[in-house]
Design a protein that fits this description.
By secondary structure, the chain is of the alpha+beta class. The protein has one domain. The protein has helices at 30-46, 58-65, 72-76, 129-152, 154-182, 214-219, and strands spanning 79-90, 96-107, 116-122, 125-126, 183-193, 196-205, 222-229, 235-242, 246-248, 254-256, 261-269, 273-287, 291-306. Strands 1, 2, 3, 4, 5, 6, 7, 8, 9, 10, 11, 12 and 13 form a 13-stranded antiparallel β-sheet that branches. A hairpin with a 3-residue loop joins strand 11 (261-269) and strand 12. The radius of gyration is 20 Å and the shape is globular.
Length: 321
């Protein structure tokens, strides 16, 4: 999902000071997309290597699998990449009435802070150099402030980063707990997806589920189907559909209507890690008490590059389509 997978996901505490150890519109509603994607990742680790193999003890296997889970946002934190974000307005018949296309550069954030996102092109036109320079100056200002904090209060700064990281990890674990409270997970069979042999799973909300997090409550409104790589046990594709309306702010702020759809695909990068490739959505939402929005959109992720201190943030902007 998104797709950064938990919104506001933070970078881990700086390696220099930590102990040695192992959007607008529908884009603002990413928590439920994240949870569904994270759910599929959990299922991936439970998949057998081949369907004719006897299954191991499910409870023991899932307990072990959970120790290996990572969100896509955590995996992406080691990479720079481009996101091409398309948002479309639809009429009542589902026809596109307008489209906007924005291209963003994503880079790892400062320790304990969210990733850095920079708009580099909009509707086929590069962002003017002066605006890019202004964004760079703002990032440089924050980096210098961080260096001053590290120089003047290294222990306090490390403790701040550690608190932020631990809070993020606790919240992620609570969401994972809710995955297994909310969904009845069933194996359906085997299919090929983009050249990968996959095992297909259904994820059906339990009618008596009692989630403990906000995202868990949102998960109850969606059913999903996940395609999982048979060899790597990694999520390849996810499809989800809203089986009930989802209200925000008691329905006064917004209400996403039943039937909204999401697809999400991942690909293997550098032969070592599976990362988001494309996500898309389509649905209707009522904003406030009057306005009805019909929207579709997608995010495509490309130009993944392993981040090091020497990585140059120069990208080839994708051509508009």
């Amino acid at each position: 999902m998104s797709s950064s997978l938990f919104p506001g996901a933070r970078s881990a505490p700086s390696k220099h000071c930590q102990p040695a150890a192992g959007s607008a519109g529908f884009h603002g509603w990413s928590p439920w997309l994240v949870c569904l994607s994270f759910t599929a990742a959990c299922v991936a680790l439970a998949a057998p290597a081949a369907q004719d193999r006897p299954l191991r003890d499910e409870e023991a296997f899932l307990r072990e699998a959970r120790t290996h889970l990572q969100t896509d946002s955590a995996l992406q934190s080691s990479y720079t990449y481009l996101e091409t974000r398309r948002e479309r307005k639809l009429d009542r018949h589902g026809r596109v009435t307008s489209e906007s296309v924005k291209v963003f550069e994503h880079s790892p954030g400062l320790p304990g802070e969210p990733r850095w996102e920079r708009l580099v092109a909009e509707n086929g036109r590069p962002v003017p150099g002066a605006e890019l320079a202004a964004q760079d100056r703002e990032r440089q200002r924050k980096a210098q402030a961080y260096l001053r904090r590290m120089a003047n209060r290294p222990q306090q700064e490390y403790e701040r980063q550690l608190r932020a990281w631990e809070e993020y990890r606790r919240e992620a674990e609570a969401r994972v707990d809710d995955i297994f409270r909310v969904y009845d997970i069933r194996m359906l069979g085997r299919e090929a997806v983009r050249g990968h042999d996959t095992i297909v799973f259904s994820l059906t909300p339990r009618p008596d589920a009692r989630p403990r997090t906000r995202e868990g409550g949102q998960m109850r409104r969606f059913s999903a189907r996940a395609w999982v790589s048979e060899s790597d046990h990694e999520l390849v594709r996810l499809e989800a559909v809203a089986v009930d309306d989802l209200a925000f702010g008691w329905g006064l702020l917004a209400r996403l209507h039943e039937g909204a759809r999401l697809t999400f695909e991942r690909r293997k990068v550098n032969g070592e890690v599976w990362l988001p490739a494309v996500s898309s959505y389509q649905g209707r939402a009522r904003v406030g008490l009057v306005a009805m929005l019909r929207r579709s959109g997608s995010s495509e992720y490309s130009n993944y590059r392993k981040f090091t201190v020497d990585t140059l943030t120069t990208f080839a902007t994708p051509e508009s389509r």
